[in-house]
Amino acid sequence: MHASTDPNAASSDRELIERARNGDHAAFAQIYDRYAKPLYRYIYFRVGDADLAEDLQSEVFLRAFESLDRYEDRGWPFSAWLYRIARDRTIDMLRRRRFRQTIPLESWSGACEGPDREVAVRLDCEELRRHLCSLTDDQRQVIYLRFMADLSVHEVALRLGRSEGAVKALQHRGLQSLARRLSICECI
């Protein structure tokens, strides 16, 4: 389930934010319950590691909690602010990670066994992730929000501050680019 963008939900967010600012921890817990799953999916698809996605998700909510008194309602949904924090934290982590090459222990556990479905799926996901990196940042954001966070075109447009037509165009161009790159790889 993802967060609704109807006006009642927005006013509910405002109410929860105000209550959380006044020390009501249950209000922040409701914010967490509302946005934790879609943020996790968004982060997971970008990093491809469940533990790391959970850590980043926790960081996002910690940052949000610490910064709640500085949050200003500028007409965008509260979720847009959370996704912005998630995007920034994920980019920071990916930059740091580029300098540290590690091999997870689970990759060594089956080294003597033949390839299986999980390895093939991981390779496909890694290939897709590499190709996603070749898209523009706007195209990549739209693809992540539409397919990993499972948001509608309308919701993505609200979060990114774009028109629905612009979101559809970015999605179309991004998917076309991915299709071209993946078909080139299959031919090689």
Could you write a compact summary of the structure shown?
The chain has 188 residues and is mainly alpha-helical. The chain has nine helices and no strands. It folds into two domains: 1-100, RNA polymerase sigma factor, region 2, helix turn helix motif (Rna Polymerase Sigma Factor, Chain: A), CATH 1.10.1740.10; 117-188, Arc Repressor Mutant, subunit A.
Describe this structure in words.
The chain is mostly helical. The chain folds into 2 domains: 1-100, Rna Polymerase Sigma Factor, Chain: A, CATH 1.10.1740; 117-188, Winged helix-like DNA-binding domain superfamily/Winged helix DNA-binding domain (Arc Repressor Mutant, subunit A), CATH 1.10.10.10. It is built from 9 helices and no strands. The chain is globular. It starts with 6 loop residues before the first helix and ends with a helix. 23% of the residues are buried. The model is unreliable at 1-8 and 108-115 (pLDDT under 50).
